[in-house]
C-alpha cells in the first residue's frame, strides 16, 4: 500500500509540475486561447440546441396551422447550425495558431537549454534521446495542450449541457438513463476485453493456416514422396475450422453485445412511450432526449479515451521539462571581466575523470604552469591526458579536485562570454558551418565589421587565398566546410580564434593531417601569435622544437619539462618519445634533403 501511495504522490507531483510549466509557457498566447475558449463555448451551445429544436419541429408538425412556429424553429435551427460550424472553425483555427506558437517557443527554449549543458551531458545522453525530446516529445506535449484540451473541454461542456437539457425534458427518464450508464460502461468493458482477445486469436489462427499451406507448398516434393496429400489436406482443414470457430465465437460475442444494447434502447423507448401516454412528455421531447442520449454515450467514451491519452502526453511533457529545468553541472555564473589579461595559467593539483568513466582518473594530482607570451608544448603517448588539459581550460568539464587559475583567479569566476573570448581553441578537425567565409570567421560575433574579419584573416595567413575565391569573403564554404581544403579550413579556424583578440590560444594537433606545404602555411599563421600564451599539442617535431617549454605527460602526470635542448640532453622520457613519435618526421626530412 505504501508503494502505491508513493507512486500516486509522484504522479500527482509530475502532473502539477507539468501543468504549472504549461501555464507559464502559454502566457504569451493568452489572447488566442481566450478567443479559442469563447468560440468553443459558442460552438458547444449552438450544437446542444439543435436536437432540442429538432424535437420542437416534430411537435409543431403534429399540430396544424402553426406555420409561424414552424418557420421560427427552422430559422433557429439554421442559425444554430451555422453558428456551430462557424464557431467550431474559429475555435480550431485559434487553437492551431496558439499551439504552433507554443511549439516553436518550447522548441527554442529546449534547444537553448540543451546547448547550455556541459559536454559531459552530451557524452552520457544518446543523440537519439535528445532529438526525440526536441521533435517527437514536444509534438506530443503540444497534442496534450491543444488537441486533447480542446476535445476535453468541448466534450465536458457539451456533456454537462446535455445533462441539463435532458433533465429539463424529463428528469425521470434522465435518472433511468444515469442508472443504465454504469451497466452500459461495464458491458462495454467486458465486450472490448473479449472481442480484442478473440480478434487476436483469429489473427493467430489465420497465420497458423497460412503456415500450414506454405509448408505444404514449399515442401511439395516431400509431400508427394511420402504420399501425404490427404494428411496435409486434413491438417489444413483443421486449421481452417479452428479459424472459423473463433470467428463464430467473435461474431456471437458482438451479436450478444448489440442485442443487449438494443434491448436497453427499447426499454428506454418503452418508458418514454409510457411518459407520453401519461402526458409527462411530448413525442418531440422524446426524440430530442434520444438524440441527446446517443451523443452522451459517445461523449463519455471520448472523455475516458482523452483522459488516458493525456496521461501518455504528460509523460512526454515531463521528459521535455526535465531537460528544460536541468541546470548545467559546470557553472556559468562567473562575473569577472578584467580589462587587461596577462594569460598566466596554472593547473593546481588537478584530479579529473570523464563522466562516462568515473573509475579512471585521466589526470591525477596534475600541476602545470603556462607563462604569459610563451608557447608550451604537451607531448606524450595517446590517452596520457593532453587533450583533457585543453578541454578543462575551456571549462567543458569541472575537475573533481584542484583548480585552474587564470591570472590568479579560478576559471569559474570569469564571466562565461568573456572567458571564451580570451581562451580560444583550434582543433585537429575544425568545424565550419554552412555559410560564407565571413560568417565563419565572425562566428558568434553578429555585429563584426568586414575590416575586423579581414584583419583576423591576415594574421591567420588566410587573406590571400580568401581573396582568390570566387566571391571572396562572401564565398559559401559548403556543409562543414567541404568546399575548402584542409589547410584553408585550419587557417579560417585560426582567424575565427584570433578575431576575438584572445590571450590564451589552445592548439590541439592542428597539423596532424596536413601535408608539408599546408603545414608551412599554418606555421606562418601561428608565427603571428607570438604575443599570446600558446598551449600546443602536436606530433610534428617542428612545432614542438620551437616551444619555450615542453611538458612530457603520461597517465595524467608530468614526467619531464624543459626546452627541446634541455630534454634531449637528459636523454629521458622525451628523448625516447622523440625517437618513437617523431621518427616519421625525421625520415620525411631526410628524404626531402636527398631530393
UniProtKB/TrEMBL annotation:
GO CC field: mitochondrial inner membrane
Keywords, in A-Z order: ATP-binding, Membrane, Nucleotide-binding, Transmembrane, Transmembrane helix, Transport
Residue span(s) of domain ABC transmembrane type-1: 34-312
Superkingdom as given in the UniProt entry: Eukaryota
Originating species: Astyanax mexicanus (Blind cave fish)
Domain ABC transporter: 345-580
InterPro entries to which the protein is assigned, alphabetical: AAA+_ATPase, ABC1_TM_dom, ABC1_TM_sf, ABC_transporter-like_ATP-bd, P-loop_NTPase, Type_1_exporter
Name the UniProt record assigns to this protein: Transporter associated with antigen processing, subunit type a
Subcellular location as annotated: Mitochondrion inner membrane
PANTHER family: ATP-DEPENDENT PERMEASE MDL1, MITOCHONDRIAL (PTHR43394), TRANSPORTER 2, ATP BINDING CASSETTE SUBFAMILY B (PTHR43394:SF14)
Topology of this chain in the membrane: Multi-pass membrane protein
Annotated GO MF terms: ABC-type oligopeptide transporter activity; ATP binding; ATP hydrolysis activity
Presence of the UniProt keyword Transmembrane in the record: yes
Pfam families: ABC_membrane (PF00664), ABC_tran (PF00005)
First-listed, main subcellular location of the protein, grouped into a coarse class: mitochondrion
Membrane spanning stretches: 30-53, 73-104
Amino acid at each position: 500500500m505504501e508503494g502505491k501511495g508513493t507512486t500516486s504522490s509522484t504522479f500527482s507531483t509530475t502532473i502539477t509540475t507539468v501543468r504549472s510549466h504549461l501555464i507559464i509557457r502559454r502566457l504569451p498566447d493568452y489572447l488566442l486561447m481566450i478567443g479559442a475558449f469563447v468560440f468553443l463555448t459558442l460552438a458547444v451551445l449552438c450544437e446542444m440546441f439543435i436536437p432540442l429544436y429538432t424535437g420542437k419541429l416534430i411537435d409543431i408538425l403534429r399540430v396544424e396551422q402553426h406555420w409561424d412556429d414552424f418557420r421560427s424553429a427552422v430559422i433557429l435551427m439554421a442559425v444554430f447550425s451555422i453558428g456551430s460550424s462557424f464557431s467550431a472553425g474559429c475555435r480550431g483555427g485559434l487553437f492551431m495558431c496558439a499551439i504552433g506558437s507554443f511549439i516553436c517557443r518550447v522548441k527554442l527554449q529546449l534547444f537553448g537549454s540543451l546547448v547550455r549543458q556541459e559536454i559531459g551531458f552530451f557524452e552520457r545522453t544518446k543523440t537519439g534521446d535528445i532529438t526525440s525530446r526536441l521533435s517527437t516529445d514536444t509534438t506530443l506535449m503540444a497534442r496534450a495542450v491543444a488537441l486533447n484540451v480542446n476535445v476535453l473541454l468541448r466534450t465536458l461542456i457539451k456533456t454537462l449541457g446535455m445533462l441539463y437539457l435532458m433533465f429539463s425534458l424529463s428528469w425521470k427518464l434522465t435518472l433511468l438513463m444515469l442508472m443504465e450508464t454504469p451497466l452500459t460502461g461495464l458491458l462495454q468493458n467486458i465486450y472490448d476485453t473479449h472481442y480484442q482477445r478473440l480478434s487476436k486469436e483469429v489473427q493467430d489462427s489465420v497465420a497458423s493456416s497460412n503456415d500450414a499451406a506454405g509448408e505444404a507448398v514449399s515442401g511439395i516434393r516431400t509431400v508427394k514422396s511420402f504420399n501425404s496429400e490427404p494428411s496435409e489436406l486434413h491438417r489444413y482443414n483443421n486449421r481452417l475450422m479452428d479459424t472459423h470457430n473463433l470467428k463464430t465465437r467473435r461474431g456471437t460475442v458482438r451479436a450478444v453485445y448489440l442485442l443487449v444494447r438494443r434491448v436497453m434502447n427499447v426499454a428506454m423507448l418503452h418508458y418514454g412511450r409510457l411518459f407520453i401516454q401519461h402526458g409527462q412528455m411530448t413525442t418531440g421531447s422524446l426524440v430530442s432526449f434520444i438524440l441527446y442520449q446517443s451523443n452522451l454515450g459517445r461523449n463519455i467514451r471520448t472523455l475516458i479515451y482523452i483522459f488516458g491519452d493525456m496521461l501518455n502526453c504528460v509523460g512526454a511533457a515531463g521528459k521535455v521539462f526535465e531537460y528544460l529545468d536541468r541546470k548545467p553541472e559546470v557553472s556559468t555564473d562567473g562575473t569577472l571581466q578584467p580589462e587587461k589579461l596577462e594569460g598566466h595559467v596554472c593547473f593546481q593539483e588537478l584530479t579529473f575523470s570523464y563522466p562516462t568513466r568515473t573509475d579512471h582518473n585521466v589526470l591525477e594530482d596534475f600541476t602545470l604552469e603556462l607563462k604569459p607570451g610563451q608557447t608550451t608544448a604537451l607531448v606524450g603517448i595517446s590517452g596520457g591526458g593532453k587533450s583533457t588539459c585543453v578541454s578543462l581550460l575551456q571549462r567543458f568539464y569541472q575537475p573533481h579536485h584542484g583548480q585552474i587559475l587564470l591570472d590568479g583567479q579560478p576559471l569559474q569566476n570569469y564571466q562565461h562570454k568573456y572567458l571564451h573570448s580570451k581562451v580560444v581553441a583550434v582543433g585537429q578537425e575544425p568545424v565550419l558551418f554552412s555559410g560564407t567565409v565571413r560568417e565563419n570567421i565572425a562566428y558568434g560575433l553578429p555585429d563584426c565589421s568586414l575590416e575586423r574579419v579581414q584583419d583576423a584573416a591576415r594574421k591567420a595567413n588566410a587573406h590571400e587565398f580568401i581573396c582568390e575565391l570566387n566571391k571572396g569573403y562572401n564565398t559559401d564554404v559548403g556543409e562543414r566546410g567541404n568546399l575548402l581544403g584542409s589547410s584553408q579550413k585550419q587557417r579560417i579556424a585560426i582567424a575565427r580564434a584570433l578575431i576575438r583578440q584572445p590571450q590564451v590560444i589552445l592548439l590541439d594537433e592542428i597539423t596532424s593531417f596536413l601535408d608539408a606545404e599546408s603545414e608551412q602555411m599554418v606555421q606562418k599563421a601561428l608565427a603571428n601569435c607570438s604575443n599570446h600564451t600558446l598551449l600546443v599539442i602536436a606530433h610534428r617535431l617542428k612545432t614542438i622544437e620551437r616551444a619555450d617549454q615542453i611538458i612530457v605527460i603520461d597517465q595524467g602526470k608530468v614526467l619531464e619539462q624543459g626546452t627541446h635542448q634541455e630534454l634531449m640532453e637528459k636523454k629521458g622520457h622525451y628523448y625516447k618519445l622523440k625517437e618513437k613519435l617523431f621518427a616519421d618526421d625525421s625520415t620525411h626530412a631526410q628524404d626531402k634533403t636527398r631530393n
